[in-house]
Amino acid sequence: MSEAVPAALRPYVAWLAAYDVVGPAGVHRGLPGTSLTFVLPIGAKLDVAWSGDPVSRRSAWSSVAGLHAAPAEIRHDGHQEGFFLALTTAGARALFGLPAAAIAGELLELDDLAPDLRHLPEQVHDESSWPARTAVLLRALTSALSARDASGARAEVGRALARLARGAAVAEVADDVGYSRRHLRNLVVAETGLSPKEYQRVARFETSREHVLAAARRGGTLAEVAAVCGYADQAHLAREWRDLAGCPPTTWLREEFPDVQAGGVFAG
Q1: At what angle do helices 196-218 and 222-229 cross, to 10 degrees?
Q2: What is the band of 3 on the pLDDT scale with cuts at 50, 70, 90?
Q3: Can you give the residue ranges of the HTH araC/xylS-type domain (predicted)?
């Protein structure tokens, strides 16, 4: 269930959801996107690792994943409960006091990033209702925001990221913000940890996830999704999903939305 984000936090928290899911034990895929992922599990520690990298595996009461271009794996016993937050790149500066680039490709805990928030998991655990837990979480984030310098990257970098996410060509974006392509690349890497092309690739994949789900629900095709999202063809879409999600779109749907796939797979 999604939760309302207070106005003061909206530039920094793109999405906040409380989750309580019961089902078969297994592995949940944490897919790449343009937001940092902040998870506060309840009831059991989060068992998370980058796909194919057992060295990165950790079990913790908090998890912050920087921007990445590979899937994460979250192992669970069938009951998943806690809070999921999608943080903007500005949110890394505002809530943790560092640019998103500083933790790109990393899996960290609050102890690593924000010692003043290290007691947040137990504070959330101490509450028995979701409204009370949400209130504790939002109060802690608002306090962290006021304790740090919330000044973000240059306005033109934010504008460039927004245009890249919408699919504008890198050269066009560089002209728009008045920088050379090299200078724009340096600024985007310094802010996000990804090059403009990498950021754009992840953004397009993120958009394709929404279209894949919508197409499955209405009986559309992957070829249609590829065309709408700017992929050369369905094969290009499939390659990007294998690289960034570690599976085809149909596998992701079957794992995450089994009811949607109950009637069959994509036609065409």
Answers
A1: 140
A2: confident
A3: 154-255
pTM score: 0.90
Residue 35 backbone class (left: φ over 0; alpha: ψ -120 to 50; beta: rest): beta
- Closest alpha carbon to 134 in 144, 118, 123: 123
| Contact indicator for 46, 39 with CB cutoff of 8 Å | yes
Contact 242, 234 (CB under 8 A): no
User: What DSSP string runs through 182-246?
Assistant: HHHHHHHHHHHSS-HHHHHHHHHHHHHHHHHHHHHHHT--HHHHHHHHT-SSHHHHHHHHHHHTS
Which of 219-228's residues contact partners 24+ apart within 8 Å by CB, and which partners? 219/267, 220/266, 221/266, 221/267, 221/268, 222/249, 222/266, 222/268, 223/268, 224/268, 225/249
- Give the gyration radius of the chain's Cα atoms: 19
How far CA 252 is from CA of 7, 31, 92, in Å, comes to: 33, 10, 28
* Cα 147 from chain centre: 25
CATH number at residue 255: 1.10.10
Q: Are 37 and 109 in contact (CB under 8 A)?
A: no
State whether 85 and 161 are in the same domain.
no
Query: Quick one: 14 and 85 in the same domain?
Result: yes
Asked if 122 and 175 touch (Cβ cutoff 8 Å), the reply is no
Asked if 97 and 27 sit in the same domain, the reply is: yes
Q: Is residue 1 part of a domain?
A: no
Give kind and range of the element (H or E) at residue 83.
strand 79-87
Domain count, the chain: 3
Listed in order, strand segments (DSSP E) in 95-147 are 107-108
